[in-house]
Design brief:
By secondary structure, the protein is α+β, with helices and mostly antiparallel strands. The chain contains four helices and 14 strands. A six-stranded antiparallel β-sheet has the order 4-5-6-13-8-11, with no helix packed on it. Strands 10-9-12-7-14 form a five-stranded antiparallel β-sheet.
Length: 224
């Protein structure tokens, strides 16, 4: 029996260690405040570390999540983001947070975060949120995992999976997003395909989406 429990414990430990290794690396020091100093010599997670003796309280503080940010034209969404670029003390800590405000019937377009999972909680309004995952029984299809979210509800988008949030209510929806990366990245699916620089060749897009080149040109104009 003791051997069986040892094997189970070892398997569970290995599982959680494998999950941890897929996120930002653990810091090797108490702090690594990001610094805009081209003369510094230590880069960690893409940022230069400030001398810890020069760190201040302001490096670990940010404000503004209590108010809505500036709305993005067309989509009716406003974002206020606290990441390593706005709070230098987040460098190496592997976390970021953002506030989003969605106008009624507006959407956060299909997108993904290549370096983070995202956990959202609704503060106000009603969201329809979901993500797409591969279907292990059919490589040419995907599975939709979605839920209607009211205030206090929590939903998670696994790292690297395409997801969306849609305000299905009649008033503004506000939600917070917590990400397990100091710099989670953002890939907007439509724009990344139809507004890349240089552009993806028309032949590839036409064949890939089974459309003609006129339709592809219309999509490129829409998202450029």
């Amino acid at each position: 029996m003791s051997l069986w429990w040892f094997i189970k414990t070892l398997a569970i430990t290995a599982f959680f260690c494998s999950l941890a290794s897929s996120y930002d690396n653990e810091p090797l020091q108490d702090m690594c405040v990001a610094a805009n100093d081209s003369q510094a010599s230590v880069f960690v997670n893409g940022k230069i570390c400030k001398d810890p003796k020069l760190a201040t309280t302001d490096d670990f503080f940010a404000s503004g999540l209590n108010v809505s940010g500036n709305a993005v034209p067309v989509f009716g969404i406003a974002a206020t983001i606290v990441d390593v670029n706005s709070m230098p003390g987040l460098n190496t800590l592997g976390i970021a947070v953002a506030r989003f405000d969605l106008e009624p019937q507006s959407i956060s377009p299909l997108h993904m975060h290549p370096r983070a999972s995202a956990l959202i909680t609704v503060l106000e309004g009603t969201l329809y949120a979901g993500f797409l995952a591969s279907d292990p029984t059919n490589f040419f299809r995907s599975r939709l995992f979605s839920e209607i979210l009211n205030p206090g509800y929590v939903f998670v988008f696994p790292q690297g999976l395409i997801h969306f949030q849609y305000n299905v209510g009649q008033k503004k929806a506000t939600f917070l997003t917590f990400l397990n990366s100091q710099n989670p990245g953002l890939v907007m699916i439509p724009k990344s395909i139809f507004a890349s620089e240089p552009p993806v060749p028309d032949d590839i897009l036409a064949k890939g989406f089974q459309l003609n080149k006129t339709q592809i040109a219309e999509l490129q104009n829409k998202f450029s």
